[in-house]
Amino acid sequence: MNSQPALDISDLVKEFKPSKDFREKHPEALTEAGLKRAVNGISFKAYPGEVTVLLGANGAGKTTTLACAQGLTKRDGGTISLLGEDPWGASPQLRARVGIMLQDGGLPQSVRPLPLLRHVAAMYANPLDISELSQRLGIDSFNGTSIRRLSGGQRQRVALAAALVGRPDVLFLDEPSAGLDPQSRQVVFDIIEEQKQRGVAIVLTTHLLDDAQRLADYVYIVERGQNVVEGTVADLLTRAADETKTITFTVARENLTLTDLLSGSGQPFSLVNRGHGSYQLSGPLKPSTLTQLMRSFEQLDLMPTHLELTPRTLEDVFLDIAGREIR
Ligand SMILES: Nc1ncnc2c1ncn2[C@@H]1O[C@H](COP(=O)(O)OP(=O)(O)OP(=O)(O)O)[C@@H](O)[C@H]1O
């Protein structure tokens, strides 16, 4: 890890005037001044040559955090250092070193992709070759169409090209692979990997856990505007594996209950019946649990046709932390 972070955010606070609906439904979530804290003390660092992922459910505060980090929104508290400067009111020199891909594209609607990219390129001293970049991202194939008429995925690709064109030192990607087909997604992953090799500090927000698991060097899980857990993907998975494991099995019995299998274990297990005799047992599995499970199969005269210990994914970790209800 490089010693100097490219982005260093400490105790970030950002408040918004809440909607009437929110005010009425969540009076407890308002500050004394009647404001809603979208970001309530988030801190994180992003280093050159690494992909730092902010992972959180809808509304967790990721986009607001990035907007403050990019200098697009004024923060209400905390400190931000982006390449050594405060991004709010930053110099044009600093802005030229930062590439931003916004979640909704943020692109002008009536222009076609290539003229737009050429226009963006003209703002930089040493831009990337537009033809090469658009070929790579498959933009050539829809260049005759204005941004307004592009599909969501096509717009995403143009937005990514616009973020890359100035050879940034810091690259902000808000949900970069949302809505992309598998081929485009792979191209985006390859490009992210190349930028990383170039030494770019990449800050990526997502709630797609697959992406985080695949790309992240370091993950910060945020929830309700605050940091909850951080670590490498491996750290988070190991930590979770110590606590809970999942075993899936299939037997010729439709209505098994937890008591049938682990009666008296006194442990907080959960059994999910996935239908057609397929079950998922989760909890702090130990060798003794496996023994008990096998004994129950024997007593019930059940021979599993499938039995597998499932490694936990980042999704499991995330759901444990963020809760399973949808906000
Ligand atoms: N301009 C605004 N005015 C009022 N509330 C806002 C504003 N912008 C964001 N919020 C609120 O702040 C909270 C955090 O929103 P934010 O967009 O940062 O979340 P997010 O983690 O990026 O979510 P998503 O994954 O859905 O993009 C949400 O509750 C949102 O409604």
Automatic annotation (TrEMBL):
Matching Pfam families: ABC_tran (PF00005)
GO biological process: response to antibiotic
Broad class of the protein's primary localization: membrane
Subcellular location, record wording: Cell membrane
Keyword Transport (UniProt): yes
Residue span, ABC transporter domain: 7-249
Gene3D superfamilies hit by this protein: P-loop containing nucleotide triphosphate hydrolases (3.40.50.300)
GO function terms (MF aspect): ATP binding; ATP hydrolysis activity
Entries under InterPro entries matching the protein: AAA+_ATPase, ABC_transporter-like_ATP-bd, ABC_transporter-like_CS, ABC_transporter_ATP-binding, P-loop_NTPase
Protein's membrane topology: Peripheral membrane protein
Coiled coil: none
One GO CC annotation: plasma membrane
Alphabetically ordered keywords of this record: Antibiotic resistance, ATP-binding, Nucleotide-binding, Transport
PANTHER family recorded: ABC TRANSPORTER ATP-BINDING PROTEIN
Annotated protein name in UniProt: ABC transporter ATP-binding protein
